[in-house]
Amino acid sequence: MNVHGFVRDLASVSLPNVFNPYRDICPSFDRKDAPAVRRRNLRAMIESLLRVGVETVWMGRDLGYRGGRRTGLALTDERHLRVLDQVYPGVKVERSTLGPEVSERTAAEIWGALALIQHPPFLWNVFPFHPHEPGDPLTNRKFSAGELARVDELNGVLFAGLGISQVISIGQDASKYGQRFGLNVKCVRHPSYGGTAEFRHGISDIYKIKWSGISNEQKALF
Asked: Mapping DSSP to helix (H, G, I), strand (E, B) and coil, where does residue 37 land?
């Protein structure tokens, strides 16, 4: 897989009312070199998984304004950049923003689960950018069918390049989408809006793990 080419193509996408963290700069919070930092973060993650091998992707809907918009990594907030190499050894990432570190509850649950499994998956979203309401960049909305069509080919390149065969859909949005690419799909409840217990139960059932007896190092990932 040509990782640099993939990230370059991802960064070339420009859509109205969509923040592309690999090309766009947030005037309120970003460093001047923020898009380049986020491109490096993503390349580091993909290159690491190409070296060790990965078959599974955990896939959410799209980037949120408190998480992936700032980090360039799906299902990952700034708090978990600090401990990312505990789950993905050797992957070096950095913040692309200024000011206080921002955390996200969904990311906390995702990374708490990652601390418990033996072979961490690739983290991605159906729509790898942050769609927002017109004139209000720090809001979340669902992508449109037309917006999704702009990234179908890129997603296909990514899944094929990594050798992905299974999708763990975090919520319903990724379930049918993964099937488009001939992938085996399992769905768990999204941890937001009261779904924490069902999310944990779903991950426990798939990976045959228990949430009790978590070590202090693992607790650091919550």
From this structure: helix
Residue 120's identity, in one-letter code, is: P
Residue 170 zone, left/alpha/beta (φ > 0; ψ -120 to 50; rest) = beta
Question: In 3-state terms, what secondary structure has residue 49?
Answer: helix
How far CA 67 is from CA of 4, 58, 186, 207, in Å, comes to 23, 16, 24, 25
83, 147 contact by CB (below 8 A): no
The two tokens of residue 186 are: 């399992």
Q: Which helix (H) or strand (E) holds 84?
A: helix 84-87
Q: How far is CA 205 from CA 115, 116, 183, 208, in A?
A: 16, 13, 19, 5
Q: Which range marks the domain in which residue 63 is found?
A: 3-219
- Output the domain CATH number for residue 144: 3.40.470.10
Task: Round to whole Å and give the CA distance between 46 and 206.
Answer: 24
Tally of structural domains, the chain = 1
Q: What is the pLDDT of residues 22-57, one digit of tens each?
A: 999 999 999 999 999 999 999 999 999 999 999 999
**What gap in Å lies between CA 129 and CA 143, rounded to an integer?**
9
What is the spatial distance between Cα 160 and Cα 48, in angstroms, rounded to a whole number? 16
pLDDT by residue (tens digit) across 77-110?
999 999 999 999 999 999 999 999 999 999 999 9
